[in-house]
Here is the input.
Amino acid sequence: MEARTLTITLQPDWQEALRQAAKTAFQADAYQGETLNFDSPAAFFSRMTERRWVLINTLQGCGELPVRELARRVGRDVKRVHEDAGVLVDLGLVERTPRGGLICPFADIHVDMYLHQAA
Here is the structure.
């Protein structure tokens, strides 16, 4: 199976972003990766906190981990790790396994962000 990749974008016009992704996907002969779009930097940074990035980084490439083991590895309270993992699962960055563990299915995560000077 090919390694999964994720690109996180910041585009306020989510409908245009969806149209472009669909156009690219229909023209492709192979897997093009997956995209997660936020409509603003504020939306991105409110959901993707530093502690949640640490969870993703810890999960990447290590296979399935139970929440308790993940909390132990990052040195955090199990309840807080469980809450943050729930947000990451809702976003699609982390997946729950049938046994209740967590896994980050992406071998590569790229954040594509441009900040422009206000007019």
Remarks:
- The mean pLDDT is 88.
- The first strand starts at residue 4 and ends at 10.
- The domain at 4-112 is CATH 1.10.10.10 (Arc Repressor Mutant, subunit A).
